[in-house]
Automatic annotation (TrEMBL):
InterPro entries: Ran_GTPase-activating, RCC1/BLIP-II, Reg_chr_condens
Protein name, UniProt field: Regulator of chromosome condensation (RCC1) repeat-containing protein
Domain of life: Bacteria
Lineage: Bacteria, Bacillati, Actinomycetota, Actinomycetes, Micrococcales
Provenance organism: Leucobacter coleopterorum
Amino acid sequence: MKFTQISAGLSFSLALGADGNTYAWGYSPDGQVGNGTNADSLLPVVVSSEGVEFTQVSAGATAALALDSDGNAYAWGKNDAGQLGDGTTTDRFTPVRVNTGGVTFTQINSAASISLGLTSEGNIYAWGKSSTGIPTDSPSRSKQMSSMKRSVRLAVVQRSVRAASFMIGGITPRERRGRLLSPV
């Protein structure tokens, strides 16, 4: 088996196979392996993507993100903070499409209870729970930005989607504690 991309999470790993399949292995109590079960796997198993071919994968602490060739994001695994972006906090054992309201991404990244997507325009969308404690269950915007449609503007501290620290532009620390609104 040849792999074209790999990503290591906290206790599971993902890989894109040269055969077009996505593979996962490791600890899977919340469906991180993505094959429809919560069974751990010592060897790579095919992620149940139902005909969707992924072009990028990102393994986070307890959830996985993937991107298809059209820029649609998919997620699976633990969803206690809404990091799967499907509008729920239900764990998913197979990939579900992230509810983006039509926004597509060129890059995705999964971290500890937060997921990020980068658009071709350079905008970063976030969902889940960030290090500042902002919960949301789909790619969202803040209450302060309610006049903007389907937009989260984040200022990236280290000019990288892979940066661990993000600051919400124009929002005070007190407002950061509030719940974000759904984009749709």
